[in-house]
Structure formats: C-alpha cells, structure tokens
Design brief:
CATH architecture of the largest domain: 2-Layer Sandwich
Radius of gyration: 29 Å
Enzyme class: transferase
CATH class of the largest domain: Alpha Beta
Structural class: alpha+beta
Shape: globular
Largest sheet: 8 strands, mixed
GO biological process, one term: carnitine metabolic process
CATH topology of the largest domain: Chloramphenicol Acetyltransferase
Number of helices: 24
CATH superfamily of the largest domain: Choline/Carnitine o-acyltransferase, domain 2
GO cellular component, one term: mitochondrial outer membrane
Number of domains: 2
GO molecular function, one term: carnitine O-palmitoyltransferase activity
Catalytic activity: (R)-carnitine + hexadecanoyl-CoA = O-hexadecanoyl-(R)-carnitine + CoA
Length: 761
C-alpha cells in the first residue's frame, strides 16, 4: 500500500532517439520547499543564538548606546573613551573608530548587567526564611532584583525584548561544590535513624577518616572541575548513572505519562493520534524558535532550560561499554509502529506542517494496511527492551548494513516514535493502563527514542520517555501543553474525527524494509525473554486520592509536598514495620545545566513523628514537615549530599584510590524512591469549569527489588494522584497494600489537624 505513493524526482527511458528525460515538477517543487524550510530553520537558530548570546542586549539597545556615544563625541566634543577614540583615529576613520568603541561599550554594559544578575541569582537565602517573614536581606535582594528603575532600564536597553527560552542561560550561576565537612555531617545525620548506635559510631569513624585523608584530595579535583565546567555533576550523572548502565532501560529507567483521568475527547484512534501528533509538532516548532516562555520560580527566578534541547530528533544508541545520545538538528518525519510493522510518515507537505485531519488520514492508511510483518520484524524492538550489550552487538553486526541501515536510521533519526496500540485502556483499570505505558508487550515501543507516543485502540493515549536526556518535568511541560490543546483548541467533529478535510494528493506512509538474519532473531528472542520476565514482575497500582488536596493542606500552613512525604513515611512504616533510606528527587535547575539532587526524606524528625503517631502528636508532624522543607531547600541550592558523594566517588575511581566509606555509602539501596511530578502550567487548565480535564500524571518502575517506587502529582486544589510500583517477586512488598496504607496515612494525618482545630475552638 505505502510503496505505491513513494515520490520519484525524475524518470527516464532509453529509446532509439536517445534518452528521454521527464522531470516531475511536483517532486522538484517538494524538494525546493524542503530546502527552503531547512534554510529558514537555520536562519532562525542563528538569529536566536545571537539574541540569547547578547541578552539582555538587543539591536535597538545597541543603536541607542551607539547613537548616544557618537552624539556625545560629535556634538558635545567630549571623548568618553578617555583618548581611545583618538588613538583609533590614527589607523581607521573616526566614524569607524566611534562604532568600534561604542560596540565595546555596549558589550561591557551587557556583561555588567549579566554579572549583576548572576550575583543576585546566586543568593538563595530567601528560600530558607520562615513562611510569611521578610528579613532585611530578602527585602534588599528583592529590591535589587525587581527595582522598577532597573527593570525600566533593562527594558529600554533590551528594546522591550521578551526573554526567550534560553535567554537566561548565561546569567545562571554554576552549581557550587559543598565542603567535604558539611557533606559528611549531613550524611551522618541522614542515616542516623536507620542505624543502631554501634553502626552509627562505625560510620562516623569511616566518615571522619575520609574527611581527613582522601576527601580533601578528591575535593580539589571537583573544585577544579566546577571552575572549568558549566556544571560539575551533570555530565558524569548522565554518563555513569544512565548511559553506562548495561541492564534494560525498560522499567528500570524509562518512565510514563498518562492521559486525562476523566475526559475522553474521541473514540477514534487515528483521530486522537492526528490531534496529538500535530500538537507535539507545534510544540517542537516553538521549541526550535525558542518561543517557549522560560520557567520562572515565583515568576522571578529563571530556571535552567538546557534539558529542552534534546527533546526531539533524539535517540539513545547502544554501545558495548556505554551508550551515547544521538541528537539531530532537525527531522521532518516520525516513525509509526502498528501490529509489528514500521512506517515512515512525513510531517510536512507543500512546505507546511500537516494538519490534524491530514495526519489522521495517514494513521487511517496505516490501520487499514493488512500486510504482515516481515520475518523478524514484529519483535525487533525487543532489542531496545533487553540488556544493552546484546542490543549493541546486534546493531553493529547486522543492522548497520544494506536496507537495515536505512530503516534503522529512519527510526533513530525520527522526531519521535508513535505506537498505534491494538489494545484498549480505560480508567477503570488504571493499573493495567500504567503497565501498558511502562512496558507494553516489550516489543511494541522503541525504548531508545526520547519520546514514545502510545495511542490505544479506543483513543486513550500516553507517553513513554527515555530518561538519560532529561528529567520528567521537561516531558511534563510538553505534555501539559499538548493536553491543553487537544480537546479545546484543536477539537473534534461530532463524529469524533479531527477538524478539517483529508488531503486529496497526500503521499502515503512508507513501509520500512528489514532483512533480519537468523542470528538476530535469536538475539531478539533472548532480549524479549529478559524483558517479559522484567515486565511481568512489575506490580503497579494507581490511586486517584480525592478526599482532599493541597488546598486544605495549605490551610494548616503545611507544605503539601512535606505532608505527602510524611504520609509516605507513615505508610511505609505501617507496611513493613521499619524505616528505610528514602529517595526524593529535587531539581537543581536554579543552576546552569542543573538536573536533580536527592532529598533524604527519612529524617530523625519524620521517624519521631511516625513513632508518636499512635499518640497523635501534631507538634512532631509540623517539626518533621519543617525539617523536610529544610532538606528540600538544601538540595535545590546545591547543598545536598548525594551528588557531591557521587562525584567524589567518580574522582576516586579516576585516581585509582578506593574509599571504604564511599563504596559503602553508594551501595546503600533506596527502598523507597519517590518523585513529585509538578504541574508547571496550571493556567492552561480551567479545572473550575472543566474538572474533567485533569491529568493522571505519570510514574516509574521500582528502584530496589524489595522496595517501592512512588510518583505523585498534585492536581488543582482537591486531587493527588499516586503511582505506586514494586516487584511481584518480593515477599516484602505489595503495591495495593502500600496504596491502602498511603490513603489511610493521609486521612490520619489530616485528622490530627481536625482534632487540633476542634480543641482550639
């Protein structure tokens, strides 16, 4: 079906009179439009690169400074350059010299303003102030950061230029390296509730030895790196935590994001794919043009945007010792998987992006295709779900030649990957829905792609994302914009189709061709066996907790995140009868190229609260919540424990020096791994008038064999969705049991406030 629509640029036949050459004007027109699109994109990126590089400067600001300088020098006969203009006049015309000096002055102003901004953004004392209290330092800092005169000056100088996505990158501070002494102190404090007195004394001895002997030497190298590199953690974190892992990334690394919880925009699979794919491509266009508004904490503090760069046209490439991340500057196609077949679908025609109904038309053609998978094609993607070394061997030996190379390049260089799943998923079975997004059949997602869009038979959908290139909030930002566009801005007709009309001359999808030898088929079968065993061991449970939400929690002057984390501690203690090392991800995007830090949520204060819960100790709850907020702020401001310890360990390995302390610390299992998926663009959803448009959030697989993975999203004022995962093979865990414990812990903790409120009355 698809092959018949392949475009041919020209045809020729050989006859008695020589060669008869017939050019296809339509094909040549498409070549011309494609080249035009490419050059436009290059120009936009070049222009954006200059604008980002000189921000807060701009062309109007440059002209203002230059005119002011030349006017002062020419009409007032005053040389502001202190003789430099005269010296230049001996070698170049006076006007050229004036332009050179004026340009230098403009650049000096840019760097001065950027240095001041970087200095202001390096101070984070405002985060540690008690809620509702303003110290004189915070007042001074806010005055300097938001001084109306300075803001007006910046606006005039920048020509009222709106900051683009990457405008603040050069103004963000570098992640600081904590002192070894502070990291040792915070680490020992974090493990105290988990160790006996004897075990803690032993760990104190190891930490003290490390602090006095090997630690300072390793610290010197980290300091040197922090002065030279943009971020002393992120490149090593990406390489050693993600890319060097040789086990499966399915379940262990990739994560998922779900559809609306209550809304069903259409029952037509092709139509839902049409709107969603179009919305994703619109987001990519805004990303390419840097037109996405940079995320600002409290509408004032800019966050790092570097992770957005590799969202699209990106694939993880397997290697024997380490994987690599391959990112293309542009891609004009996607790859669609359906019933074991792969199709290349062009996203542009007539020099423009395909409209939703046209994309639906392409999906309908794929769904109507009755051809069978080629030998070995159906389960090919299982290679991306299994161990990395067999996948690297198969790719290098058999898939980088002939038609396989062309097809593999098409997949790996696609903007993103789409699966038209032949199953139906419904909110009544959220647990099964989560497992399908997390691993599917283990061969119907290309787990190496940065983004997999999965559209089910009944129109429900979701994402599966590879983790090495960015963290979940980046994908969440995309997903929020896509969901907000789908039913409202793009919409559907009364019978469920995308709005608009099919294209009468649109070339169809192209079927990818494979030649899978028997050796690869054996490798595929082995990888599939590993992946299926891993997938079958996942126990997922989703809880839409609607008894109360952040609105009520805030009324009691408690951080919603701290409240939930304490509920998780209480639930875990009730579930297992003991405390455990707890991981909570915190972003470090206040710094350039920042990714995450660990909040060690199990503290002395949280344990004291849990132990006293049967006595209903509200005071201990508030103390534990304050401690958690303190730990979270330390993590956000570069004063966490784990990334510093991780980098110290990497340096020790480079130097060939073993540290018993670091080896023991980094081998401790995280039996409770948690992460909040923040709702970053709440203004996109009118949950008051349209409460059905709430997101379900997303989740990830368990980190420890005998532990739990918990992701949660706080939606609006009255809903918190929990995504719980564990392993069926562990006798210690049960996701449903833990979910019941979380629900009860939340209710019991709220009851403490309610009882206190009644007592006060």
């Amino acid at each position: 079906m698809a092959e018949a629509h392949q475009a041919v640029a020209f045809q020729f036949t050989v006859g008695p009179d020589g060669i008869d050459l017939q050019l296809s004007h339509e094909a040549l027109r498409q070549v011309y439009l494609s080249g035009l699109h490419s050059w436009k994109k290059k120009f936009i990126r070049f222009k954006n690169g200059i604008l980002n590089g000189v921000y807060p400067g701009s062309a109007p600001g440059f002209m203002l400074v230059l005119a002011g300088y030349l006017g002062r020098a020419h009409y007032l006969k005053v040389d502001p350059s202190l003789g430099l203009l005269v010296k230049l006049g001996r070698h170049v015309p006076m006007l050229v010299g004036g332009v050179m000096v004026g340009t230098g002055l403009w650049i000096a102003i840019i760097f001065s303003m950027r240095t001041v901004l970087k200095g202001l953004l390096s101070w984070h004392g405002w985060m540690f102030a008690p809620h509702g209290k303003m110290t004189w330092q915070i007042r001074l800092w806010l005055f300097m950061l938001t001084n109306p005169f300075l803001v007006i000056l910046v606006n005039i100088f920048s020509g009222m230029q709106t900051p683009m996505l990457y405008s603040f990158q050069n103004s963000l501070p570098h992640l600081p390296v904590p002192s070894v002494k502070d990291t040792m102190r915070r680490y020992l404090e974090s493990v105290q509730p988990l160790l006996s007195d004897e075990e803690h004394r032993r760990m104190q001895s190891l930490a003290l030895d490390f602090e006095k002997n090997l630690g300072p030497k390793l610290q010197w190298y980290l300091k040197l790196k922090s002065w030279w590199a943009s971020n002393y953690v992120s490149d090593w974190w990406e390489e050693y935590i993600y890319l060097r892992g040789r086990g499966p990334i399915m379940v262990n690394s990739n994560y998922y994001v779900m559809d609306f919880l209550y809304a069903f925009p259409t029952h037509l699979q092709a139509a839902r794919a049409g709107n969603i794919i179009h919305a994703i491509m619109l987001y990519r266009r805004k990303l390419d043009r840097a037109q996405i508004k940079p995320l600002m904490l409290q509408n004032t503090i800019p966050m790092c945007s570097s992770q957005y760069e590799r969202m699209f046209n990106t694939s993880r490439i397997p290697g024997i010792e380490t994987d690599t991340v391959q990112h293309m500057s542009d891609s004009r196609h996607i790859v669609v998987h359906h019933r074991g077949r792969y199709f290349k679908v062009w996203m542009f025609y007539d020099g423009r992006l395909l409209l939703p109904r046209e994309i639906e038309q392409q999906m309908e053609r794929i769904l109507a295709d009755t051809s069978e998978p080629q030998p070995g094609e159906e389960t090919l993607a299982a290679l991306t779900a299994g161990d990395r070394v067999p996948w690297a061997c198969a790719r290098n030996a058999y898939l980088r030649h002939g038609k396989n190379k062309k097809s593999l390049d098409t997949v790996e260089k696609a903007a993103f990957f789409v699966t038209l799943d032949d199953t139906e998923q419904r909110p009544e079975s959220l647990d099964h829905y989560a497992k399908s997004l997390l691993h599917g059949k283990c061969y119907d997602r290309w787990f190496d792609k940065s983004i997999n869009l999965i559209v089910f038979k009944n129109g429900t959908m979701g994402l599966n994302a590879e983790h090495s290139w960015a963290d979940a909030p980046i994908v969440g930002h995309l997903w929020e914009q896509v969901l907000s566009m789908d039913p409202v801005k793009l919409g559907y007709t009364a019978d469920g189709h995308c709005r608009g009309e099919p294209h009468p001359n649109l070339p169809g999808p192209q079927r990818l061709q494979w030649n899978i030898p028997p050796e690869v088929s054996t490798m595929i079968a082995n990888s599939l066996s590993v992946a299926v065993a891993l997938a079958n061991d996942v126990d997922s449970h989703i809880i839409p907790f609607s008894d109360f939400g952040k609105g009520l929690i805030k009324k009691y002057k408690i951080s919603p995140d701290a409240f939930i984390q304490l509920a998780l501690q209480l639930a875990h203690y009730r579930d297992k009868g003991k405390f455990c090392l707890t991981y909570e991800a915190s972003m470090t995007r206040l710094y350039r190229e920042g990714r995450t830090e660990t909040v060690r949520s199990c503290t002395m204060e949280s344990c004291a609260f849990v132990r006293a819960m049967i006595k209903e100790k509200l005071c201990l709850l508030t103390q534990a919540a304050k401690k958690h907020q303190q730990m979270y702020r330390l993590a956000m401001t570069g004063q966490g424990t784990d990334r510093h310890l991780f980098c110290l360990y990497v340096v020790s390995k480079y130097l060939g020096q073993d540290s018993p302390f670091l080896q023991e610390v980094l081998s401790e299992p995280w039996r409770l791994s948690t992460s909040q998926t923040p709702l970053q663009q709440g203004e996109l959803f009118d949950l008051v008038n349209h409460p059905e448009y709430v997101t379900t959030g997303g989740g990830f697989g368990p980190v420890a064999d005998d532990g739990y993975g918990v992701a949660y999203v706080i939606v609006g004022e009255k809903l918190i969705n929990f995504h719980i995962s564990s392993k069926c093979s562990s006798p210690e865990t049960d996701s449903h049991r833990f979910g019941n414990n979380i629900r009860q812990a939340m209710l019991d903790m709220l009851n403490l406030f309610e009882l206190d409120k009644k007592t006060l009355k």
